[in-house]
Amino acid sequence: MNQPLLSIKDMSITFSSPDEADIEAVRQVDLVLTPGKTLALVGESGCGKSVTARAVLRLLDKNARIPKGEILYDAEGGRVDIARLHPDSTAMRAIRGNQISMIFQEPMSSLSPVHTIGDQIDEIIILHQRLSPKKARERTISLLDQVGIPGARDRSNAYPFELSGGLRQRAMIAMALACTPKLLIADEPTTALDVTTQAQILDLLRQLQADFGMAMLFITHDLGVVAEIADDIAVMYLGDVVEQGDVFEVFRAPKHPYTQALMNSVPRLQRKAERTRLTPIKGTVPSPKDRPVGCAFTSRCPHAFAPCPGQRPERTPVSPGHVARCHLLTHVREEALA
Amino acid sequence: MAVETLTPAEAMAPAKPQRESQMRLMWRRFRQHQLAVISLWIVVAFYLVAAFAEFLAPSDPGAYSARYTYAPPQGINFFVQGEDGGWSFQPHVNGYRSEVDQAAMRRTFVIDPEEIIPVQFFAPAEPYRLAGIIPMSVKLMGVENARDPFYVLGADRLGRDLLSRLIHGTRISLSIGLAGVGLSLFFGIVIGGFAGYYGGWFDSAVMRVIEFIRSLPTIPLWLGLAAAMPKDWNAVQTYFAITIILSLIGWTELARVVRGRFLSLRTEDFVTAAQLDGASDWRIITRHMVPSFTSHIIAAATLAIPGMILAETALSFLGLGLQAPIVSWGTLLQDAQNIRTLATAPWLLAPGVCVVVVILALNFFGDGLRDAADPHGR
Amino acid sequence: MLRFILNRLIAMVLTLWAVSFVAFAIIQLPPGDYLTTYMATLAAQGERVDPRAIEALRQQYGFGEPYVVQYWKWITGILTRGDFGQSFEWKAPVTTLIWGRLANSILLEGLAVVVMWLIALPIGIFVAVKKYSLGDYLATVAGFIGLAIPNFLMALLLMYLSFVYFGTTIGGLFSPQYESAHWSLPRLWDFLSHAWAPVLVLATAGTAELIRILRANLLDELKKPYVTTARAKGLPEWKVILKYPVRVALNPLVSTIGWLLPALVSSSVIVSVVLNLPTAGPLLLRSLTSQDMYLAGAIIMLLGVLTVIGTLISDLLLAWIDPRIRYGSK
Amino acid sequence: MRIGLFKGWVSTAALAAVIIGAGPALAQQQAPMLDDLVASGDLPPLEERLPSNPLVVEPVESIGTYGGTWRSALRGGLDNAWIARTVAYDGLVRYNREWDEIIPNLAESWEISEDSRTYTFKLREGLKWNNGTPFTSEDIAFAVELFSEPGYGVGSFIKSEQNPVSVEVIDDTTFSLVFEKPNGVILDELAGVGGLTLVSLSKDYCSQFYPKYNESAAEEAQAAGFQTWELWMEDRCGWATETIRWANPELPFMNAWMIEEPLTGTATRATFVRNPYYWKVDTEGNQLPYIDRLTMRVSDSVEEITLMALNGEIDFQDRHIATVINQPIFFDGQEQGDYRLGANIPSSMNTLILQFNLNHVDEKRRELFANKDFRIGVSHLLDREEIIDVVFTGQGEPFQAAPRPESPYYDEEMAKQYTEFDPDAAAAAFEAAGLVRNGEFYTFADGTPLNITIDMISTFRTEWVDMMELLQLQLGAGGLDIELNNIDRTLYYEKRPAGDFDAQIWQGDGGLDVVQEPRYYMPSGDESVWAYRWAQWYQGARPEIAEEPADWAREQMELMRTLQSEGDAAKRDELMKQILAIAKENFPVIGVSLPGNGYYIAKNNLRNVAEPMLHAYLFPTPGPYDPFQWYFAQE
């Protein structure tokens, strides 16, 4: 097993507001990213997966803090705790875009509407690699070519609105790869795309990962995508990582009721006669401020029992590399009946 | 480092499960803008002054005194030193020593610390009706002997009390702003509303007209209209005519806002739903659409008031607006519009200070309202 | 793009026609005509009015024709001969009176627009980035103070204060010795030492609106994902803000020039009167009050034309800097 | 600020062939700035430029030195009046500095026929326009010819229908003005600003625009962008003191200074430079003027002009800035600005004249306003001392509409009658006028309410607002319900013919210029607002509204007609006194107070400036005080 590239240890993120109590949006998350591997971060909207990903690049809003935990990154010059860097410091900026880069969900709005694709990619190359504008543009064109944009030279002078969604996302990827980063964070990169484009983009990402050997943090709510691209999976619910491990292991034997429920809500291709009703998760995600002290899933869990609301379940190893946070794994059934 | 401060609820959950009432939410957002909150109180204070002018003004704004032309401000002192050297509480103003300098054609004044004129609070006054309703016969402050000088903010060229004139002028100036905006609002909502709701040729026609009016410099319009006003109108008629002139130009901005809101609301689901339910247009507009953008309208209207107040002063400056003996900030400033005043009676610029403060306050208040009503900008 | 320009041009011609009509209507609104005002003015100066002279003038100027006829004569004169008619009061063709003054107006208002932007840009960016901070409030008050002080008062105060503290009178555009000199460095300096006051008054009166729009646009843009993208590139924060959201927020701001112009023209009338600037303003004011109708009509119309052209230019500018409009998307 | 004794008014020039001795032949000098021009031959030597007998002017204080620039300011580009007062005052004849005599100017002498119909003038020999062409009788004849054109909009005695005039040219320097009827006041007309019309055009230059002399003049006018030759003529050859006259630097002048930078519509200043052909010398034979140049800043901002004066950037000025309200700051600023204040004695005899409409169309009101007792009552209700105190800081004295104390027509009784504040007398007078007081206000005898609306204009004189507000309160206290109607000046004029206004106010013209401006003493013209319809009858105008005046007014009118055709000054005086006596008896209008002295601002180094100066429209101050002999002392 490779040396981890980035480890998030026991990280919490809190948001403050002028007239409300602070809210812990992410609590005690542990994640490990390894070169050449993809970690998928899965969960419903609002569960904190994007916040976690952005924390790695310190791109959080200014009312967000990381009060505890560390984000250890093996930079070229040694290990850095990103959690302790100032967001606008030189050290942080040297990592951003250069060693860790990010792809966003909306390729349209994530690209500046008033600059050409080429300009936007050139910029990052000039910034980190100190190339002349001319050379940077050559590199940009080869990158665009590499991500499969036809007529890359012409397209580099195009504005985002002149490209289709798929091409835009390819351009976005080209931008992210411009400095051959060690870690690529992809925040739902395929959500806004249609199905065929989605598959092409996933293919591209997989292939690029193979070419560049980078680690990838892939955020999605689509378990199908996870199956296609991930090596490891971490399932988040309302700020907690409830289950994580090898993707096959977790898919094969989900231990946390939430993971199980997620699995059940994905339709499978079956003969009509064999189809069973999908079991959607009951209720909706509560607001973080209504989250119980204990397991966040309590309010929607079909198995909820006595310790759930008041006591936070520990990380419990299920099998090597497979961990879940659920009282069901540590408490005996009798208590549940009691 | 991001810029926008979102509440955690907004940061975490895009779909808000529990809906706070629109107004409460707005008020909460409004409170974040502290400058707007302060401004709100300033605006309220000024309107209270306007409403209770008779009670607050120490004297009749028209009462003149030959002995005190251009008398400087006295200021109010609260303590007097007794013969034993001890200080006791006695609100008072000091008298003047003055002499006439014939060569220079003026009176010179020196505040006389010896002469103490006690100030009474809730002093008796000529009977009047407070805010036009409540019969009263006291005023906030006054001096016992009406012949004693009482010029807290100084006197003007006829020896009239500037403070009293300022207080009464507040009434005219602020109400002209309010009335002008009210009228503009009426035109704006009716015209803009129709344009936005029905769209089509009417909408484009209205928009062209609005663009046209906005492309005209306002001064010639004012001048032309003000000059065309029947000259034998009395003060009240002139006042209303000025209001109408101001709102004839002012309605365009409000109409634009209203139209914009109507256009965007027209396509929203709840309106479509109401239409499908067979609700009448009138019902849809009044029951569904108007309540949902009242806050924007209030904000836009608030931001339109300062323009009206400034316009009133500008018209007075050009000699076309309200004229003496009407007392407004514009006419008061007109008196202060000369080197002589700047050089020898700067206190007569006090109406200018009021204008500045009120304009700033109304602007910040309106901006705060707009921020709160529409967190995502325009 | 061509279509866009063409459409705008057609709209402009229509607007101009409407402006000319309104201009003529405005000068016809007040009761009486130039001669009644003329008599009143003479009498006010203690001069004696000779009714015979008035009668001769009345014939000479052709008063009493129907309104439409007068308008028709006027507008065809302008279109066919560039003849704006005769100024009664100056006894000179209107064209000889207005061009130089209009040029001064354009110069001053142009300078004011530039200064307005110079003031509004930093403040607008600052207050958006530092929303609801003490700095925000102070900068906002500073940016709005010019709006809040009535123009005439500010102009008068500046003139008086510069007399008291610098011992100079800053009225006009030049000191007497440079009045009719050729352009040179000292003359430019002299011009600047006079022009700062009106430009400042005009500029600060408009900054508030610019700041307000810039702030609203910028607050909007700052939340957009592309800003995060830019940050994720590793750009320093100031560069992120200046290069991306500010750049985008500037686009709609360009189009505000168009409708800032009418307000600017209006306030320049007042400022010019107080500071004695040889712009079209005082001429307009005087001609309106004396009912010198062809002169007033010509100035109102030309000011309208200026604003309409200004709007057109700002629209074209917007199209030029915003690729989305340039390439006809949306 | 003592006021010099004002002597007799009218010239005694009937036989006058006033010849002030020809200048000493020796030591004639010219300004150094002309020396080079003469040396280079661009300019003839001084002797060839001066007339054979130049007008010798006695300096006010001392012989001056050449040089310097007189800085002043115009309020806007149409402020021709200041140029008229400083540059233009050079007619055939002029007033002396005391305004009690008419003295030679361009004309060195004149004769008046027995019947007062023919006036024969003798011009100085060798007078030249500033371009060197001779000034002759032909120029006068040309002006009369041109201004008699019916379509030419000039107002002057030349166009008078009641007493038409013609010119007879006798020789180059001699001509006669011949009137149809006797004319006793023409010399006064010629000595005032109105007389400038006659001598303002050079035939040599202006005839090129006149179809009579140039067949293609009309086409040339078209080509120059003017619709008619009249407009083109007006543009090139503005008459007398018209603004347009100062816009054409080619136009020949006879004044001390000529146009250097013209006053065009776009000018920010107008400048004038010495006329090398000016035809006046000082007592040592030095050619005048002393001052090289005049620069007039064109400023639309009174406040700017005020600051310029305070800053010492103005050498002499009174117009626009020397107001009551500015007096304290100008007084205080004398040291800093290095200037002094001198007294201006106004020709006006009143700060405000209240004119009830004696010709009201409403029968009841006409009867009331025409009742002398009513007007006496109103006059007694005015607390004039208070108004003087509040509005004028104590300057002035209670005064009715009557000639000023400086005037030979001064009559203390006329000036002071009914001026004491006396509510009881007022009540008695109102009772005599048939008014009844029920409660707060008086009503007509039949009980109909009496509310009186007084029209006023605030934009013309700011102090009127203040005065009228006080007046309203004072009359109100005495039981008269007064409403103030602050209106536009145009409307002010338009209301007059309709006759349904109650009262209007105006300033007290005619304090010194009693004969020329008798509007408050008798119904003399449109400005006699109190008897507008009678005045129409007198003028023979507007027959649709003209009304036959009351007997006393008719008597005045007959006296005035006699006066105007009377050649003998003493007899004219007597006639005027009779008119005034009738006015005093009938008390048609109510005055408030005698205006205090005005002031002028002059730099400390500006010399030969008379103090005090009389100030009037007809006597265009400072013109009659000979600005061409002012000079800057060298320090």
Quick structural summary:
Helices cover 57% and strands 15% of the residues of chain B.
What do these coordinates show?
The complex is a heterotetramer of chains A (338), B (378), C (330) and D (635). Chain A is an alpha/beta fold and 338 residues long. Chain A folds into 2 domains: 1-99 and 183-269 and 277-285, 3-Layer(aba) Sandwich (Rossmann fold), CATH 3.40.50; 106-180, no CATH class. Chain A has 12 helices and 12 strands. In chain A, the strands form 2 sheets. In chain A, strands 6-7-8-3-9-10-12-11 form an 8-stranded mixed beta sheet, with helices on both faces. A 4-stranded antiparallel beta sheet of chain A has the order 2-1-4-5, with helices on one face. In chain A, helix 3 crosses helix 4 (133-146), helix 4 (133-146) packs across helix 6 and helix 6 (165-177) packs parallel to helix 7 (195-212). With 378 residues, chain B is an alpha+beta fold. Chain B has helices at residues 8-12, 22-32, 34-51, 53-56, 162-198, 200-215, 218-228, 235-266, 269-276, 281-317, 329-336, 339-344, 350-373, and strands spanning 77-81, 87-101, 106-130, 134-143. The longest helix of chain B is centred in the middle third of the chain and has 37 residues, at 162-198. Chain B is elongated. Chain C is an all-alpha fold. Chain C has 2 domains: 31-83, no CATH class; 101-328, MetI-like (MetI-like fold). Chain C has a two-stranded antiparallel sheet with strand order 1-2. In chain C, helix 5 (94-129) runs antiparallel to helix 6 (134-148), helix 6 (134-148) crosses helix 8 and helix 12 runs antiparallel to helix 13 (293-321). Chain D is of the alpha+beta class. In chain D, strands 20-19-21-15-22 form a 5-stranded mixed beta sheet. Chain D has a 4-stranded mixed beta sheet with strand order 2-12-10-9. A 4-stranded antiparallel beta sheet of chain D has the order 5-6-8-7, with helices on one face. Residues 1-26 of chain D have low confidence and may be disordered. Classes of the chains: A alpha/beta (338), B alpha+beta (378), C mainly alpha (330), D alpha+beta (635). Chain C: Its main location: membrane. Chain C: It is a multi-pass membrane protein. Chain C: Residues 102-318 form the ABC transmembrane type-1 domain. Chain C: Keywords: Cell membrane, Membrane, Transmembrane, Transmembrane helix, Transport. Chain C: The chain crosses the membrane at residues 9-29, 106-129, 141-166, 195-214, 253-275, 295-321.
Shape of chain B: elongated
Name the pair of protein chains with the most residues at their interface, and give those residue counts: C-D, 62 and 65 residues
Taking all residues together, what is the mean pLDDT of chain C? 83
Structural class of chain C: mainly alpha
CATH topology of the largest domain in chain C: MetI-like fold
- In total, the number of domains of chain B comes to 2
CATH architect. name of the largest domain in chain C: Orthogonal Bundle
* Structural class by secondary-structure content of chain B: alpha+beta
Q: What is the name of the CATH class of the largest domain in chain C? A: Mainly Alpha
Q: Count structural domains of chain C.
A: 2
CATH-scheme architecture of the largest domain in chain B: Orthogonal Bundle
